[in-house]
Amino acid sequence: MGREISRKSNPGCQNLALYSGKNFRKAAKTFCLLASKFKQAIDRPGTKRDKNPGRIQDKFETGPVLRLIFWQDKKMAFGNEAVVIGGGAAGLNAALTLADMGIGVCLLEKEELLGGHAGRYACKATDACVSCGACSISRMAQKVTQEKLIRVLVGHRAVEAKQDNGGFAIRAEDAKGREEGLLAKSLILASGFTPFDPSGMALGYGRFANVITNYELEIILRRENNILRPSNNEPAQSIAFIQCIGSRDAKLGHLWCSQVCCPSSLRMARLGLAKNPQRKINFFHIDLQNCPKQIKQADDKNLNLIRAIPADARLGGEGKIVLAWMDPNSGLLQEEAFDLVVLSVGITPSQETRFLLSGLMGADNLPEIFGAASGSVHTAIPGLFMAGCARGPMSIADSIADAALAAWEAKKFMESKK
Ligand SMILES: Cc1cc2nc3c(=O)[nH]c(=O)nc-3n(C[C@H](O)[C@H](O)[C@H](O)COP(=O)(O)OP(=O)(O)OC[C@H]3O[C@@H](n4cnc5c(N)ncnc54)[C@H](O)[C@@H]3O)c2cc1C
Ligand code: SF4
Ligand code: SF4
User: How would DSSP label each residue in 370-386?
Assistant: First the structure.
């Protein structure tokens, strides 16, 4: 059953009476009696016990009653205002900005939890905050669920979007294939990105347990609060980060820089050293992009910034990974074994975004996402906007800013139609 979280009625909702005034309080009171039983039914393992502060778990304390009420209009079309597809950094802020401007909005998220990719990242603070941006997600997710003008549908994937009578008709499905039809004057596509899949590359991902991606390391750090080897769950003592995996690669046709993997991997490397200063970390890169001065400085003797990218990996003793690379200073081949290798995979376009766009624009008229032409939140369709990594690689902060701009443009568009 898809989870629906909302606090009160939305002006765009045609079933206003059910939620407002006396009816709302009466219904809430009735369902409160059932709350404990109902809570058991909806709090599934993995969400209830999720230690991740601020994600959807936070609102489970008061959520069941309200969700039960809102189930009753699940089949009802939601009209008049905006729909945002995607509940990541961009989608959350698009919905919040629209609501701040008094616009009723329905936020669709296919996963059970809000937050998108960044909702799974670890805090990288060492002795001080290093401005990774991860904690902004939980704050926004919490605000979204408290905002009266936002109706949130989690566990609902947008499977089709079409132009309809000067606006948009969106079809969403929950895990059981039950459908929800939504109508909107304006649509913001904030459906995010897909991390590059390095399976099949020569660097051993998928073949060797101790070769992981930076995305997987985020999750390990968040869960274990340290850099552990998947093979034995012991802290890794020697670690190699390899940058630009799946980005800046002409052979793949991925010419873009993913913008975020240098700063985020360097922050994880520094956190690893803060937890264990005896660790040795090699950071293989082409050049370091978007790294603030404080994280770029290689002032730690155990953090070696090496301008080279190892071409392949083989398995050594005790699950170690042996990497070979050309030393940039001597020109000689170097070889070394590491407890753990972290591939910094880049941001690639989401197939889901392409699919939704092809329904809106026709498969032959797809805009260039992740290319030079994707430099704006506008699209060729009036009223349709794109925000965040759905249209190109960007950081959490940039996705948030982008979404605010898309929301402003959506508001301007809706006003022009009045
Ligand atoms: C390994 C890694 C580490 C990173 N570390 C940092 C960092 O430290 N700091 C930083 O600033 N940035 C970092 N980034 C970048 C950061 O992840 C992005 O800036 C941010 O996630 C973009 O948010 P978004 O909302 O655009 O996309 P996403 O996070 O991808 O969110 C999109 C959302 O849309 C939903 N969705 C997709 N399709 C549908 C559909 N059809 N229907 C309904 N919902 C749908 C998805 O489930 C998802 O929740 C990192 C990226 C990577 C890969
Ligand atoms: S911005 Fe990042 S490092 Fe700073 S407190 Fe938030 S999660 Fe931690
Ligand atoms: S941010 Fe760094 S690792 Fe990522 S693609 Fe750009 S240069 Fe490569």
Answer: TSGGG-SSB-SSTTEEE
